């Protein structure tokens, strides 16, 4: 119980820190308190996580304290967040942790580094391009659903980084992404599915429909919520066409693997009853769209 | 569900493009509801209802972004229809082809819409004046070219049409292809009157796909390739952006929609009895189902543009428009018309005549099928009067 308290306290600290040192402190606390949560699942992953995060913290500390290392700040934050080319730890961790931890890892652990990146308004196109490409291409040949989600988080990071120049957009995209991702993971973890081959084992139609809605929302297909946040980011960045072209093409690639998951569960529906009210709640999320649609 | 469709059909008939296509949509949905008794009927009607609403919204929205959103949205219920109620294992790659062809090709359109929206700070339909250069026009129409398939990007069409259940095929042929046509109409503000390359590709592609039709062994696949050929008319007419051409393309869209969906329904009638779509087995309608033979005659001859039908007048307007462009198009247009007659007659003769090797007695024919087939044929005759 205390580890959860520490974790949430670290989030509060992150958001309310006034200086780089405060941010560093809260990120340290965050990673340290996340390790005991992970260690129940898999010791090796928690060790990897701890090592990577502490190396990144050290680099971050050095860069904020000294003038000559200050160019290293974004790199340290990118290592913490799991952007490409520093994404390998995220991939190897997600193979062996449970859905709950993975959910935390992909959503809330990103608050701190994203705050740091938003403060320095980091929009280097190299990292955006490479995250998009690796996130899109990497997920295509996977059959482990958690790996697919990890690659999806890498590619969504590229979308997040594209609109770093406007804090509102970053936070809007992040909030929407967290909502969609948590709903998808809630659904996927509910049935305990681990790999793609298991998805065709006969789940009820409403369940597979809501999984499909959530995943296609992540993919950025209209009419779902995910499309509108991507549209916002595109509209913001019309000046650099190569950037948005790559982002959208990688989004197309990611449609392929989301669609793969969604469709294998849809092809063999059994007539089992709906698994509680949760599926309906998730369905309604995907259609959180009636509001933006009415603005069209 | 019936009531909703009846109501949809009785709405007021503006003579704007959107209105015409809306009327077509309502009519087709009405027919579709009658024509298939599916498994899992509740979710089937949900999917159809969603698709109908989305198509309705596509044709009535006033903003380009809205059009784009609903254009993409209509993919999802269609894919659900193909995957959920199609009956062959090839429907999985077919749905991938369908999704990805449309998705990837509509990306340039998205960019152009967004850039125009931010330039004019509005995305209403009236702002698209002619100021793009040729590249922008081609990129903008790429999505629509793939959607009403131009020959080289047509690969998804036979797959999707053949694998879809009958209502899926009907709605695909009738409406979804016309979304592309409607979109082409909307971007005519950007038209630069100089895309001779695309026009040439369309024309040759139409001829090629007519020739491919003649070598098909699957009835539905033949009808699908005939859709490609007819849509090449539409694209060519739209690219010319003149009054006659626009008239020809809207007439062609309506008539092709009704005709193709009727043909798909007829193929389905045979399928429900013989459980095969191959030309070797679907024969001799004249001796087994003689009343059906009349519908085959009517629809396949209207498909090639026989005089009192709407198809004929659309082709007439098309000839006028195309000769306006260049006299040498006469040869290709003539070739296209000739080959389309070829495959239509082939379709009629091989399904209606010939010796039935498999069945040797009369088959039953229900009232429902009468109704559906007539609903397809009669508008083609009647709409000429408008």
Automatic annotation (TrEMBL), chain A:
InterPro entries: Complex_I_Subunit_2, NADH_UbQ_OxRdtase_chain2, ND/Mrp_TM
Localisation: Mitochondrion inner membrane
Molecular function GO labels: NADH dehydrogenase (ubiquinone) activity
Top EC category: translocase
Source domain of life: Eukaryota
Membrane topology: Multi-pass membrane protein
EC number: 7.1.1.2
Transmembrane segments: 6-26, 114-137, 174-193, 205-229, 238-259
Location of the NADH:quinone oxidoreductase/Mrp antiporter transmembrane domain: 73-253
Cellular component terms per the entry's GO annotation: mitochondrial inner membrane
GO biological process: mitochondrial electron transport, NADH to ubiquinone
Reactions listed under catalytic activity: a ubiquinone + NADH + 5 H(+)(in) = a ubiquinol + NAD(+) + 4 H(+)(out)
Keywords from the named record: Electron transport, Membrane, Mitochondrion, Mitochondrion inner membrane, NAD, Respiratory chain, Translocase, Transmembrane, Transmembrane helix, Transport, Ubiquinone
Family designation: Belongs to the complex I subunit 2 family.
PANTHER family linked: NADH-UBIQUINONE OXIDOREDUCTASE CHAIN 2
Role this protein plays: Core subunit of the mitochondrial membrane respiratory chain NADH dehydrogenase (Complex I) which catalyzes electron transfer from NADH through the respiratory chain, using ubiquinone as an electron acceptor. Essential for the catalytic activity and assembly of complex I. Core subunit of the mitochondrial membrane respiratory chain NADH dehydrogenase (Complex I) that is believed to belong to the minimal assembly required for catalysis. Complex I functions in the transfer of electrons from NADH to the respiratory chain. The immediate electron acceptor for the enzyme is believed to be ubiquinone.
Full protein name: NADH-ubiquinone oxidoreductase chain 2
Taxonomic source organism: Artemia franciscana (Brine shrimp)
Upper classification of the organism: Eukaryota, Metazoa, Ecdysozoa, Arthropoda, Crustacea
Automatic annotation (TrEMBL), chain B:
Domain of life: Eukaryota
Reactions listed under catalytic activity: a ubiquinone + NADH + 5 H(+)(in) = a ubiquinol + NAD(+) + 4 H(+)(out)
Subcellular location: Mitochondrion membrane
Residue stretches spanning the membrane: 17-35, 42-59, 65-84, 96-116, 136-157, 164-185, 197-215, 222-245, 251-274, 286-307, 327-348
GO cellular component: mitochondrial membrane
Sample GO molecular function, one term: NADH dehydrogenase activity
Protein's membrane topology: Multi-pass membrane protein
EC identifiers of the protein: 7.1.1.2
Main location: mitochondrion
Role noted for this protein: Core subunit of the mitochondrial membrane respiratory chain NADH dehydrogenase (Complex I) which catalyzes electron transfer from NADH through the respiratory chain, using ubiquinone as an electron acceptor. Essential for the catalytic activity and assembly of complex I. Core subunit of the mitochondrial membrane respiratory chain NADH dehydrogenase (Complex I) that is believed to belong to the minimal assembly required for catalysis. Complex I functions in the transfer of electrons from NADH to the respiratory chain. The immediate electron acceptor for the enzyme is believed to be ubiquinone.
Protein name: NADH-ubiquinone oxidoreductase chain 4
Source organism: Artemia franciscana
């Amino acid at each position: 119980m205390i580890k959860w308290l520490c974790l949430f306290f670290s989030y509060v600290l992150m958001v309310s820190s006034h200086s780089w040192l405060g941010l560093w402190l809260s990120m340290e606390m965050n990673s340290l308190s996340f390790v005991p949560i992970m260690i129940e699942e898999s010791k090796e992953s928690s060790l990897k996580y701890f090592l990577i995060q502490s190396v990144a913290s050290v680099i971050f500390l050095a860069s904020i304290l000294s003038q000559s290392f200050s160019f290293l700040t974004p790199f340290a934050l990118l290592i913490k967040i799991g952007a490409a080319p520093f994404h390998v730890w995220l991939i190897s961790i997600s193979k062996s942790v449970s859905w709950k931890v993975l959910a935390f890892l992909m959503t809330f652990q990103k608050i701190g580094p994203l705050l740091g990146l938003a403060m320095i308004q980091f929009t280097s196109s190299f990292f955006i391009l490479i995250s998009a490409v690796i996130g899109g291409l990497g997920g295509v040949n996977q059959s482990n659903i958690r790996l697919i989600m990890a690659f999806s988080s890498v590619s969504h990071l590229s979308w997040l980084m594209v609109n770093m120049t406007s804090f509102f957009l970053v936070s809007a995209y992040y909030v929407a992404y967290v909502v969609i991702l948590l709903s998808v993971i809630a659904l996927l973890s509910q049935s305990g599915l681990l790999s793609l081959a298991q998805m065709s084992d006969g789940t009820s139609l409403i369940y597979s429909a809501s999984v499909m809605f959530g995943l296609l929302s992540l993919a950025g297909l209209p009419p779902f919520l995910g499309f509108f946040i991507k549209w916002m980011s595109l509209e913001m960045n019309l000046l650099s066409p190569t950037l948005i072209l790559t982002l959208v093409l990688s989004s197309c690639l990611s449609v392929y693997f989301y669609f793969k998951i969604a469709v294998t569960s849809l092809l063999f529906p059994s007539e089992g009853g709906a698994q509680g009210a949760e599926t309906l709640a998730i369905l309604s999320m995907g259609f959180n769209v009636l509001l933006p649609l009415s603005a069209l | 569900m019936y009531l909703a469709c009846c109501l949809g059909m009785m709405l007021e008939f503006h003579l704007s493009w959107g209105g015409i296509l809306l009327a077509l949509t309502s009519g087709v949905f009405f027919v579709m509801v009658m024509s298939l008794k599916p498994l899992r009927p509740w979710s089937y009607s949900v999917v159809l209802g969603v698709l109908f609403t989305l198509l309705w919204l596509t044709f009535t929205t006033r903003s380009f972004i809205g059009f784009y959103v609903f254009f993409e949205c209509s993919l999802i219920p269609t894919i659900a229809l193909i995957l959920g109620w199609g009956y062959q294992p090839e429907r999985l790659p077919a749905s991938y082809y369908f999704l990805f062809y449309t998705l990837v090709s509509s990306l340039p359109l998205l960019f152009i819409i967004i850039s125009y929206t931010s330039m004019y700070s509005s995305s209403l339909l009236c702002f698209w004046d002619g100021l793009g250069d040729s590249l922008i026009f081609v990129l903008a129409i790429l999505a629509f070219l793939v959607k009403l398939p131009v020959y080289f990007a047509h690969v998804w069409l036979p797959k999707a049409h053949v694998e879809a259940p009958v209502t899926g095929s009907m709605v695909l042929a009738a409406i979804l292809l016309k979304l592309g046509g409607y979109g082409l109409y909307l971007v005519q503000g950007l038209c630069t009157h100089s895309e001779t390359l695309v026009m040439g590709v369309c024309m040759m592609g139409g001829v090629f796909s007519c020739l491919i039709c003649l070598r098909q062994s699957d009835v539905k696949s033949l009808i699908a390739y005939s859709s490609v050929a007819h849509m090449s008319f539409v694209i060519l007419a739209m690219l010319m952006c003149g009054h006659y051409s626009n008239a020809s393309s809207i007439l062609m869209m309506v008539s092709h929609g009704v005709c193709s969906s009727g043909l798909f329904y007829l193929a389905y009638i045979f399928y429900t009895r013989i459980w095969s779509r191959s030309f070797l087995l679907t024969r001799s309608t004249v001796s087994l189902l003689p009343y059906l033979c009349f519908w085959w005659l009517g629809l396949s001859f209207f498909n090639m543009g026989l005089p009192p039908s709407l198809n004929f007048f659309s082709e007439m307007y098309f000839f006028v428009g195309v000769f306006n462009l260049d006299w040498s198009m006469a040869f290709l247009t003539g070739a296209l018309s000739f080959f389309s007659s070829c495959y239509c007659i082939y379709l009629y003769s091989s399904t209606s005549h010939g010796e039935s090797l498999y069945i040797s007695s009369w088959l039953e024919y229900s009232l429902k099928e009468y109704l559906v087939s007539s609903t397809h044929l009669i508008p083609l005759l009647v709409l000429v009067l408008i």
